[in-house]
Amino acid sequence: MTHKGPRPTARPAPSRGEPLLVELAVAPGLADVAMEELQELGRRLGKGVVTPDVKDDALALRWPGTIAELHTLRTIVSVSRVWRFDVPRPKALLGDALLRTIGAAVAELVRDAPAPFHALRLSAAGRESDVMQRFAEALARSAGLEVDPERGDLVVRLRRAPSGEWEVLVRTTPRPMSVRAWRTCDRPGGLDGAFAAAAVRLARPRPTDRVFGAMVGSGTLLIERALVAPAERLDGVDIDDRAVACTLQNAAAAGAGEHVHVWRADVTALDIPDAAFDLILVDPPWGDAVGSHRTNPALYEAMLQELGRVAAPGARLVLVTHEVRLTERLLEDHPRWLVAHARRVWHGGHQPLLCVLRRSRRR
Ligand SMILES: C[S@@+](CC[C@H](N)C(=O)[O-])C[C@H]1O[C@@H](n2cnc3c(N)ncnc32)[C@H](O)[C@@H]1O
Asked: What does pTM read for this prediction?
């Protein structure tokens, strides 16, 4: 046997200033957007060029800073600390010395977290096995928590790296970061916060933007736009009074209440002058949780027409929908909207179309 006993290859409690091995979870289809935000953060904080290993659903990197800095990223789902151990099998992690070092690192993570954890949940192949249960219980004890396989919010993963080493990953927040603290009210079909932040980034926000949230629902796109950069104005409508109230409540919880103006209106017949907006954000009914596939063709056609009227020439429209074929058909040769960018992104079991349209300069 070539293995010479348990040997951690990344020290579980790095001294101050040593880069932290981390993994940032991202929605498949948005890794490039998250990488761009990460690299901007690195430049802004003077960390030099940050080059993650990009996977479909995660960015892996050594971060030369703090976890709190990574918690400012808006387009990622979660941050996990990663520790690698050159051991042949998980049982070796139960050795006294290793367990003490992993336990101390996890206890430190729990102490420094932005919100309290309630219980530990282990996510690993064979998590019911005796070894896995002893591992989970020992880590939970170090962190002063119980193990709760269903509702635990200190999520610990154990997996084998392609190099053959074993990796322990611990999520650094009790809830995924994409579940926003501002969401005090929800509506059917509400978008994920990180997804909305990424959608907004694709439209390159500018401080001069006159922004219009059409069909706001719970306000996710409009609020994420409000939080990412100043704007000339932030208006929104929904046909449902409950959605209007919900968006206003969430905007207030996000600290953007003063800037966001939302009222009840039908997006297909707006009492708004021509060319009033530079950036429009819309997530129309997908025909499942909200709306119907039967009425969507007429609704989408009228919506694109009316939004084309209130959009200034050159304005951007961010459109998120699962009515993929209908949208592609309507946008083929549309008199007012040109497709600048389109991609499919995973979102809660669906793979909606996310596109940025540009208002043609034709009247
Ligand atoms: C998919 S939901 C939007 C969800 C939103 N993105 C969120 O994160 O909560 C679609 C919204 O369109 C609204 N809606 C449907 N028809 C409308 C119309 N003709 N004019 C304005 N809003 C409409 C619905 O009331 C619903 O709130």
From this structure: 0.92
